[in-house]
User: Fold these one by one.
Assistant:
Number 1:
Amino acid sequence: MAHYVILSKLTDEGRKTLKKKPERVMEVNKELEDMGVKVQQQFAVMGEYDFVNIVEAPDNETIMKMSVELGSRGSVQLLSLPALPVDDFVKKTT
């Protein structure tokens, strides 16, 4: 499984939804799992983004499908970054 860092920003609509139903975050995590994306860690953050998620997925295509599905709802904007564990990085550069 490949690792990805997903940075997400709520839209105005997303903020309204989250205010009314904070548990929606966990419901979306379950939906991601059904798409083949497993949330490893999730952080609410301050600044340019609202959430940082560390996820695992079988491939880039799965992450693209996730991005299109979530983005089409109009509640969030995503930035997906493929991530390589540092140990693997070191092995590949030596």
Note: Helices lie at 12-20, 24-35, 60-71, 86-93.
Number 2:
Amino acid sequence: MGLILDKLALLFLCGICFSFSDSSIVSVAGLLLLLIASSVAEVLRNTRFSFVFPLVYSCGCIFLPELACGAPLIMYDSLRMKKWWAVLPMCTVLFRLDHFRNVQIVILLAGLFVAAVFYIRVFRLEEQVNILRSKRDEVAEKNLELDDRNRELADAQDNEVRIATLRERNRIAREIHDNVGHMLTRSLLQSGALIVINKDEKMKEPLEELRSTLDSAMTSIRQSVHDLHDDSLDLKRIIEDSASAAHDKFKVNLDYDIGDSAPAKVKLCIAGIVKESVSNAIKYSNGDRLDISVREHPAFYQLLIMDNGSSEKINETGIGLKNMKDRAESVGGFISFTPSEEGFRVFASLPKNKENI
């Protein structure tokens, strides 16, 4: 709104200046051309052609000095567009002041002064707006950084809670195994001994039922302990710990994409293969990069470990490689070892089936 008022005020001053011209045709035509030039310049302000119409109007003053009555508005538009040189052709009017009346010269100078004041005010206002926009962008960036840090903090807290939960599950599993399990085992042995030495036929059936009950309880406890232990296996953490041992020698790239629902047998198999592979790479590889990829597919789990050291031979009778092969076969999968000049590669595919659950 302020811009429109400024231009209307300058247009009004230019109109007064035009009104003192000797020819009414020149006054009307000049005012009309001024209005067109200023309007088109405003429409094209943010384009590369914004200066064309003010420059054309300014050049017109060379042939028709009376057009200089519109100098205040043209100068205001040129300054706002940062194209001050567009008004230079108007300067030729200084050598042809005889075409103007004294009152026109006074009004023209006053209009130029007002245009300069308006521009300075607008320029300062735009500077303040730019500063406010910059501050707004900084605040928005800080807010995004704060959100990221809050998410990281929340993830770290969730991870700490998860680790604490897994440790507590392991502790409970150990307590059940060491205490309740041992007592049930002793009770089973005692009930077996009582059955052997019992001579009373009436007590035989109750003792058998007691032994059966204790045996069922032992099976249930064993299953519960296994479930707690299986749930407490944090495969990603195990792999990260294994990979951290190679950071002094390799640049380690880890790609992990397996859900928490992976069976315990598969987790133990993958963890064992990764540990052995990383250990072999540290001992025998002369490379500087180690890539570890553990991914879950709809029908199988895939494991790929590769370094960039040169290796053309492999001793498949080695204990480490044999252990990895046995681990993969224990869950129905297969594993391959590929040495080459580009590096040593361990690839394993472990199927998803009920036997692994």
Note: The two ends are 73 Å apart (CA to CA).
Number 3:
Amino acid sequence: MPERTPVIVVGAGPAGLAASQQLRDRGVPHRVLERGDTVGYTWANLYDSLTLHTGKHMSNLPGLKFPRTAPLFVPRREFWDYLRHYAQVFGLPIETGCAAERITRSDGTWTVQTNRGTLAARALIVATGIVANPRIPRFPGQERFDGRVVHSVVYKRPDPYVAHRVLVVGVGNSGAEIASEIARAGGRVTIAVRSGANVVPLTLAGLPIQYVAYWVRKLPRAAQEAAVGLVRLLSELKRGKPVLPRPAHSPLDAIPVIGFHLVDAIAEGLIDVRGGVAELTADGACFSDGTADRFDHIILATGFGAALEPLGALVQVDAKGFARRRDRVVSLDQPALYFVGHNYDATGGLYNIQRDARLAARLIAGELARSRG
């Protein structure tokens, strides 16, 4: 028979830790399953130079602020230290090296098959994030390419790319940072931009752009667009016309590139910009704009999708690849199923995790109390 517990939380990254702390705060017994060998496994393994784009005042998890000595934008290593400290401070019931391999539901019970055995619970929180599910496109002719093709998730530092010809595919925040870092370290970098990018400053009048976005999003849509237009105008007055094509969508509708590290490197001639990749050749790539070039390495900064594989066909996803939900965290497809870490916008993924962890824990605690009554 499977071991039983009222609630299982899958994942011990920021979302899982926040959910666990809120469940513990409400006296709800639970277990947290982490596939990696440490709390915050994803943050332990992302690239060395990664730094939060969001300010520390809106990036902490519930119940524990960053120390005053922490920089406004917290580096990856310091954030990982914070996650481990967070788990220790609250004594969270985390089981590392315990991967949720298959999740099923029957007779009002969730069953989680792991590499260490089977667990059962009344309620389930999926807090698996996105990094475990990188989007890896395959291009025509890829089998002919003699170089190395990797996803950005395996990138650690620029040293292996110095003096090499590198193509970065994609212009999200990770692609922008990786491309500019390699270029400044001495790599010959080209970035493939299929549909353009909205670029916003990291700070505005000394405030993180996230703080500005938090208040702007409280305005009517027309006022929000006006604020976006003003930021764009101020940026162009200070820095000149944009060097990247502007996409059809607004910065309000998808997370923009935050900071000018990429556009500065392009303006300085350190990075070439091409269209989308049409096909790969034996020694490089052909682009949608009709040009071609030779490359030694291709880094796919093509993003991630929600890591939902253990749920199989139990849930459907929305247009962005996240599980369908109501009230931010509640599954539309299954009862007693909740998602924390599935809301991303300009106010910051970590800020949304704070909100969603509190909401999910409150709903679960209420439901368990009603079932006992």
Note: The mean pLDDT is 95.
Number 4:
Amino acid sequence: MHFHIITILPEFFESPLSCGLLGKAVEKGIVRTSLIFLRDFTHDRHNTVDDRPYGGGPGMVMMVDPLFKTLNSMPDSCKKILLTPKGKPFDHKAAARLSRESEICLVCGRYEGIDARLESLVDFEHVSVGDFVLNGGEAAALCIMESVSRLLPGFMGKDESVGEESFSEGLLEYPHYTRPEKYQELEVPEVLLSGHHGRIARWRRDRSLENTLRFRPRLLDEAILSKEDIHFLQGLERVCPARNLYMALVHSPVMNKMGKEGVTSLTNLDIHDIARVCETFRLGGYFICTPLKDQQTLAGRLITHWTTGAGGQGNPDRAAALTGIGICESLENAVTQVEIQAGTRPHVIATSAKGPGDITFGRVRRLLDDEPVLIVLGTGYGLSPSVISMADANLRPVCYLSPFNHLSVRSAASILVDRIIGDYY
């Protein structure tokens, strides 16, 4: 593997390329490097590589001509990578793919960025090493070089070392122990001393699953899991942020098709289906808000039938779902009920298919770590402005980039809870 590194700071790489496993790989010829000093491709007496941006603004921009001439000097077979925040996130799969290349050129940007015309002149792969700001691409280039190089034959001491690393199977790695057996009353797990390879393998797999669920649960989206894996994960004791999430379905005041405020009637399917969503994702509670006494009585009769009545006896799963429903005369009453249950007032989030919203699903997810959240759904033609105005924030629509955004409230409830919680309650 030959890395060509285009940089204005070639000295940045001197120490990393001369020590550790990467240094040994360079000595053995497993990895070759060419540090290409960008200023060598300039023609003015100051070796200028940057200039002020058109349109004004702070900082400087890397000029297109020196970079274009530098890249034209690369071998035709060289894979050209531009390190940029807008690039595709770099991960283990990307490293494995790049390890099959023979030559890679890494372009290390600096300042405020690179003249955008370079991207029209050169066929790049855009890569980002993470959602954080660096002074330049040099540190990112080192990350890629090390991640790719360690997958090359002969780089690691043992081939199995590569296969058992974090992310190689979409999971974090299991914990490791070495001598002494006991340190400050902390002992090495007995199973690792047993010599029983099957038990050790299962223990390591379980710890890997446990670490992943605890620290990086969304990695499980891509991991292939067995029945044993899923059974183990289901049995784990863990923090349950979904218990901080509550849902309210408002029947008044809502908008009708004439654009006026009004009241809607209960819908049997809304009661059942949203309750099942709340139970599946382990939400803290589900409240149906209607000021009409006959509608409150009807909701009570339906819930009783499916919980303690004949329906509940024949369908215990349905009974479990509907047990958590609360009937309130208003949204204000639902907020009070959540405050009593959670011990603090919830962050009230209104939903609408209209407008951009001012809070995202990810931000709502993060709120759940510290405080209760009440998601407010509207019936009819959506929540009235008076309800939306009392909310702390308005959630971005489920499909905000589509001109058609007319989901049933049951469908919207399912999607938004999955976006916020997923399987990570």
Note: The chain has three domains: 2-159, 182-234, 241-420.
